[in-house]
Records
---
Amino acid sequence: MEQYEREHLGALRRIAPECMVLLKSNGDFPLAAPQKIALYGNGARHTLKGGRGSGDVNVEYFPSVEQGLENAGCIVTTKAWLDAYEAAYEAGKNPFQTWLREKIAAEGMDRLMENLSIVMPEPDYDIPLDGEGDTAIYVLARQCGEGVDRGAVPGDLFLSKTEIRDIMTLQKEYRKFLLVLNTACYVDISPVAAYIDNILLLSQPGMTVGDSFADVLLGRAYPSGKMAATWAAWNDYAEISEFGNREDTRYREGIYVGYRWFDTVGTKPLFPFGFGLGYTTFMLTVGAVSITKTVASISVTVENTGSFAGKEVVQLYVSLPQGKLDQPKHVLASFVKTEELQPGETQAVTLSFDMADLLSYDATTCSRILERGEYILWVGNSSRNTVLAGKIMLERTVTLEKVTPVAGETDFTDWKPMCGDRTVKECAVLTVDPDDFTEKSFVCPSPDDDAMCIAKKLTDEELCYLCTGEFENEGSKQVIGDSALTVAGAAGESTGRFRHLGVQSIIMADGPAGLRLARECGRDENGVFPRTPPTDLRVLELIPEDMKKVLLATLSGFKKEERSGETYYQNCTAIPVATALAQSWNIDAAEMCGDIVREEMMRFGVDVWLAPAMNIQRNGLCGRNFEYYSEDPLLSGKMAAAVTRGVQRDGRHGAMIKHFICNNQETNRFRTSSMVNERTMRDIYCRGFEIAVKEAAPIAVMTSYNLVNGVHTCENRGLLETMLRGEWGFAGVVTSDYLTGDKTPSDEINKYRKFRAVPSLQAGLDLVMPGGKAHYEQMLAALKDGTLDRETVETHAARMIGCVWKLRGKGQKEDV
Ligand code: BGC
């Protein structure tokens, strides 16, 4: 292991416990010393460090919970159970694969990739629970990944019959029992939650997972995470919110996502947003609110009142006035995580927020406003455990921004709650002067002048090469995460044809759980290549012959290439998946993860990281929720901004936030339309992106596969030019998500047609990824016949050149 690997793993091991949320505790844990452990559950030996798909990171090794316990000196007494489970899982594959084979044959090529992404639900089995020892641990794991949503079925979103039975039995049979949830996605644990004394949401904290778990179990570290999303019984989620429609999915619940829904309607979740226990207890003493101009602050003293070290997350929520606009019961406005506090130790923290950041979109005036009335501040350690901290009065409604609607039309109005009485008891009221708010004027950044000069001198052909990813021959033959030519296993790169002009290619690799590259690689006279195919070729067995042929002809990842040449390794660190990182509520930890990624980008020659992914966790069924931070835009935005700062710290590496916007489901992901009203889109789904853009200036933004209100996001000029660039001042490049073109399902079976390169460039997209001849030719033809105006393409090309210069240094202009 090289020095950088050791350092990165060491750093990860320090922060992983911060990502774990202790959901229930009766004080039986931590254990005082290593001992015999009766270890059960599908995640015990097959522990998950993260999820599947482009968000997976190819690592050399990571310890399972079983190995972590053994490394720490425990004796696992259930080897027979763990072996028998593996056999039961293998046996369960037969019926599943038969079902899948038939489904693939019946649904054909158009749904092939979606079907191949389906995760097998946990099978049922009957294995005696007879491990020795006083303490039992059951590790329940759930695998999720891109390309398909989860199943509302036992063994996936729900617990299987076997899991319920075994968990309940272990709780009764052993003196101490801990249920460990090795999932970064929601699982409905309501059938067991009330009966189990100790539950730890281990999540998927990256490649020290097993060792980090042992650290926490044995009290060598303590969990200090808090929920980044509300977990409730599945039946308690908002029924009005549609999900998974192949054509149009209506976001009828409007702004009432996650705790905004639960806390407003008063339904008690199992584990609220922001909730998490530790090995100790804390007392919060809330000081007075103060206000300077428009910034409100409140000091809180946190005391560790228990007998173990710990960290607390202090959260500030604000109830906005119910005026012309309806508002949720409260929204997160600020949070701070304390330092490590020893028993008896105290720390004073200050929470502040700018009132202007509480703005809401008002459709009647097309503006972003703060309504007159009382803003009520609450402080606590979850959305459900707060105390009244103060009130701020705004005497007059203020308009902060006049904007242009960009979302498009829907055929429904958003759900609104019955607005009950929300008066709260008397307390000190401060006032904020409406005149202290200034209405914002927008400045849309223009491309670098020198870059524009170069672009102007390029031929039409050259301009088009700059606006599409580098491709060979026909191009677009690659699968996700394997399109780059220069760095093995990187996701893609921009054109390298203009090196003589000082414009290098930009190498892009996936995230968000670390840097996704091929680990074992080869180098021969034709260049570099991954030694192991990015796709598990065993899936080919499930595909009928005719479909197999098409697949092999079009996607290189499904071919086994025998190449010789020297072998080398790219060892990258799998950091916590985004949800786990958000559960740390630790901005410094997030920034440090960005540093880890940047150092590895530098080592392996990657310029842009295709992350953070920061869509809102709208529904527990979304297959990619683990790649996203939270149900809350503020927490998502702050986390993404912190990671971006880490990645971009040296000014030579860039982050690409994604997927812009409303990529909240995977079902029919290339052609489904998220139907969402302007206010909801802006206040919930765009807000995190806006925070990340304004706070951390990511070098790039990736549009989403899905459409919004019937328009592909990469073809929506309002989104890209008016809002992202115009209102938010985004100065980087906008790229499409990958394979948005020729390899996606056919137009005939879909309500919406494929995305097109030409309207996308007209709408503000700079770069079509991963690149292909078809897109290049479409652009060129449109430029030649005048459908695509040359100046538009020059602007995109200039932005690309500007981006290269930023990351690689400014080119030699004298060559031009
Ligand atoms: C995913 C992106 C990813 C890209 C490149 C797409 O399928 O949606 O998140 O960055 O592939 O691998």
Note: The pocket of beta-D-glucopyranose is lined by residues 54, 146, 480-481, 491, 510, 610, 658, 737-738 (CB under 6 Å).
---
Amino acid sequence: LYPAWASSVGYHKYDNKLGIPDAKSRDRELAFCKAQADSLHSFKISDLSDANKTDYFLIDNQLKYIEWGINEQRAFEWDPSGYNVSGGFADMLANEYDKLDTRLTNFYEKMGAVPAYYEAAKNNIVNPTKEHTELAIEQNLGGVSVFEKDLEEALTKSGLDDAMKGKIRERAKTTIAAIKGFADWLKNLNNAYPRSFRLGKGLYQRKFELELQSGYSADQVYAFAVTHKLELHEKMFEITKKLWPKYLKSKTMPEDKLQAIRIMIDALSVKHTQPGSFQSEIEKQIPELIAFIKKKDLIYIDPSKPLVVRKEPDYMAGVAGASINAPGPYDKNGNTYYNVGSLAGWEKEKAESYLREYNHYILQILNIHEAIPGHYTQLVYANQSPSIIKSILGNNAMIEGWAVYAERMMLENGYDGDKGVNSTEASPEMWLMYYKWNLRSTCNTILDYSVHTKDMSKDAAMHLLMDEAFQQKAEAEGKWRRVSVTQVQLCCYFTGYTEIYNLREEVKKKVGNKFSLKKFHEKFLSFGSAPVKYIKVMMNN
Ligand code: ZN
Ligand code: ZN
């Protein structure tokens, strides 16, 4: 039913298939969900182990999510950007999981279904939103290069005979025509009453439940975020007052709190590494983080599974930053890479603006988040409770929430790169920058909820992001674009973070002075990438 999904998690048996998104296939999906739910429900939950109970709930939720998507959300009618074949084809060329000629043969067979795919898309679309229509046109046209440049490069390296290469090129032309035809069709669509991109409260609340599987409702998390934002502003203003004489002695501090904080952030942001040492700076911090965690006894880090730091591969180039690249669940023996972007060749101004954003302080927080003890550490623990279900249906709120929680936890324990392994207290500068970083996920939640359920205007959104979360205009514009084509995803960071933090405080209270942070972390992570609400039940058992 989901060949593209299978390929993306490393299961390549159906690489030559392309699902046709028509009414018949939706009927098949619904029948599949009904049949699987029936067999799933024949298990008695109380008979299952903790690990299997979580898998049970994850499968049950996934089946409900699919049904809800088809029957209620119906994005296949109003979101044309859901139709785009190029990403899957690009992966077949870029990822070397099989011999190139095998991948190219699958590529060829799969292309055969592209025209039918876009015909089905046109039949589905009813009154699409303007935003998703524009995105669909842009992304589909952007993907054409996969069937021109990328494919041509692969054919040059291929050992297939000329006759087969000719057939592939012919079919690529038909494929490109189908993609461009879809984009043209969208451009000329008579769409006098486009649907609003705002999901609306009812659908939003349900999507929040199905996507995040949080113990809190969307309304609760929104209320937490609003309170948290105000608390962060207070703390940031306290630090700003304290640091003002050190950095801005000659200037009068503005009375407006938010303005004063912004000036202080700008003053601290000039401390940053240089383009040429961006990668080595990140690399250097990894062993320092490990040493600090060991010294403070925060969590066991398995030394037999080192993180491989590498320059990001070419097909990811241009993004900079850093990201974890983990092997899919069907590809266990692969290495886990920490891809670090290079700023080589960037214009001076662009590099400077980027380095101020990822300044001396934020870069440390980024490393905590992405690598240790954030995503990478969580992943190592998740792999110890092997469950293909948890790998494939892993809960994003838990995964992102852990990384965001790890940032705060490290600072609470005194982490500060300038003070070394024996540091007991992070500097005020470090805290101020951390709060700014934390405001981002907090305001993402406020933004997402307000836009989709409270009709927040673009002006109000820009005020929130620029004046209250201290973001640059370009970043805020990008965020507005993102919130107008996605729903709920922007909440996963703050939701998971809040749940994990609150759970830790509850356990701490219950256990009293016998509480061990290390034990809490290790136990929490031992259940894999499950929703926090289930981990909470299992931890209390
Ligand atoms: Zn500079
Ligand atoms: Zn993350």
Note: The pocket of zinc ion (ligand 2) is lined by residues 369, 375, 400, 403 (CB under 6 Å).
---
Amino acid sequence: MSIERTLAIIKPDAMEAGHAGDIIRIFEANHFKIIAARLVNLSKQEAEGFYAVHHSKEFFASLTAFMSSGPALVMVLEGEDIIARLREVMGATNPAHAAPGTIRKLYATNVERNAVHGSDAPETAAFEIAYFFPGMESV
Ligand code: GDP
């Protein structure tokens, strides 16, 4: 086990619904340390840059419109094995498949409006942390 950093986003749907506090409480209950945070209003272009890996997907336009539709809370979380642990606490991308008690089971509306983002690997965490917090170390 090693100390890692990961990028979490409370997405516009969860912000709009007033679930930011509930989600942060879950992070804290799991001893995820918040070491940076920014409230952002992404432009469509910034959302496209963040999700560039998905540019060829049929849902890309819809996803980036959603992600630029309102405020989002972007955070860097730190802890042992945090990348995998955050993914576990988030639950499956599609809330219909998410385990009970996970953030997406509790707060997601559908596969797109799914409340929260978490980096899926060390390489993506490095890219995503640098995207929002230029100059910040990813480990
Ligand atoms: P994640 O790592 O669990 O967030 O999932 P992905 O990296 O596969 O997808 C990124 C984001 O795109 C998801 O969190 C959803 O917001 C959205 N998304 C994924 N799959 C679909 C889909 O089939 N349809 C739509 N409309 N959005 C999707």
Note: Residues 122-132 form the longest helix (11 residues).
